[in-house]
Structures are given as C-alpha cells and as structure tokens.
Write a structure and sequence with these properties.
Layout lengths: L1 H21 L3 H10 L1 H14 L12 H26 L1 H7 L5 H32 L5 H22 L9 H18 L16 H5 L25
C-alpha cells in the first residue's frame, strides 16, 4: 500500500507537469470536476461508495462492516481503477497513434501501467478476503454497481466526445468500457455485467503492457520514476 500511495503522488505530479507544459489554464482544469456535471457525477459516486469505509474506527471483525468494505474495494479495484482509469486515457492514446501529444501520452502510459497493478492488487485482496472469511456479496448490489458505473461513463463519454476525434468515438469509448468491465467481473468471479460486449479498441491493452526498454543510441529513456524526475526527451 505504501508503494501505491507513492505512485499516486507521482501521478499527481505527472498530471500537473503535463498541464503546465501544455499551457492549460490550471484554475479552469482543476475546477472542472466542480462545474461539469458529467465529471462531478463520477466523483459523487466514488465518494458515496468509498467514504463509508475510509474511517479510522472501521471494525472489519463486524460482518456488516466487512461486507461494506468488500463492496467498496470491489468498486475501487474493479471499477474506479480497473475500468474508469483504464479507459480514461484512451482519447489521448488515440491521438498518440496519429503522432499527436506523444509526450503526454507516454507519461499517461506509465500511469496506466501502475493503475493496472493497483486494480489487480485490489481484486486479489477482495477475492482472498472473501475466500478466508466465506463472504458472499449480494449479486443484485454488484449488478447495480456496474449499471451505475456504466451510466456515469456513458454520460462522461457523451461530454468529452460530443465532437468525435478521428478514429475515436463515443461508441468506441463506451464499448471498450463494457468489454473491460466484463474482464474485471470475470477476475472477481462475478457474472459478466455486459454479455456480448466486444473489444472496440484492440490497441488499448498494448498501451498498458508497454515495454520500458529503449535503444540507448536512438532515444533517451523517460521512465518517470527514475530519480523521481520527469522528462519530455
């Protein structure tokens, strides 16, 4: 967990670096989650599902508290990091494939790689606790969780892609979300929430599974964790 906290701090630093380097209005960007309903909706869902377990006095020996914790961690690992974050960088990666915003996209690739590890860790924790404590989560509540996440992601996609970019559309974004949601559900040993969903962005997994190695004589390695520094070379 300490490593994850460290990596999240690096991610925040990376986002700030990208925003400053591109020259975006920082005040406007950092305030978007307050004024854009489609973004705020996702924040509100996350707060509602996570705040109840972010307490110092939580008692996991209590059966109800434990189940509430597992539901919250299922949301965090399976949806928040496993789907929303995984899918969230896709528009920038689509631009990268056209030779645009390559520096920003590379930094996002490193973040995405970390988020995949975070999601995998969370899913493993949930499954292990369920196994050890013999807990059964409510299938209806799980289904409602996926439906709520899908509705929020669909609204968000409609906002960010109201004007489609070349090679990437709202339908692509939503379709990929549902495909990844099915993958996370299988990893959690749940039923697929969106049966028949197809992979609309077959190149996305390549971004998450990127190799860090580069030819020393051709380019400079920009691994963002090297020395805690960022580079656009």
């Amino acid at each position: 967990q300490a490593r994850q906290v460290y990596e999240e701090a690096l991610h925040t630093w990376t986002y700030q670096h990208c925003i400053e380097t591109i020259g975006l209005d920082q005040g406007e960007i950092y305030n978007r989650y307050r004024v854009v309903p489609e973004i705020n909706q996702k924040i509100q869902i996350a707060n509602r599902r996570l705040n109840s377990v972010l307490r110092a006095d939580i008692d996991l020996r209590d059966r109800d508290e434990l189940e509430n914790f597992l539901m919250a961690y299922t949301f965090f690992g399976g949806i928040f990091e496993g789907c929303w974050f995984y899918n969230g960088f896709s528009p920038i990666f689509a631009l990268q494939r056209r030779g645009l915003m390559k520096g920003t996209a590379e930094q996002f690739q490193y973040i995405m790689r970390d988020e995949v590890l975070h999601a995998s860790f969370g899913i493993r924790v949930v499954k292990q606790i369920i196994k050890e404590e013999e807990v059964t989560l409510d299938p209806k509540a799980i289904r409602e969780m996926w439906e709520e996440a899908d509705a929020a992601e669909s609204a968000y996609a409609g906002y960010i892609l109201r004007d489609p970019i070349l090679g990437y559309s709202k339908e692509d974004h939503i379709g990929q979300f549902r495909f990844i949601a099915n993958r996370r559900a299988r990893q959690l040993d749940h039923e697929e929430p969106f049966p028949g969903a197809e992979c609309t962005l077959p190149w996305l997994d390549e971004q998450a599974n990127m190799r860090k190695e580069k030819n020393f004589f051709e380019t400079t390695v920009t691994e963002y964790q090297t020395g805690g520094a960022l580079s656009w070379d």
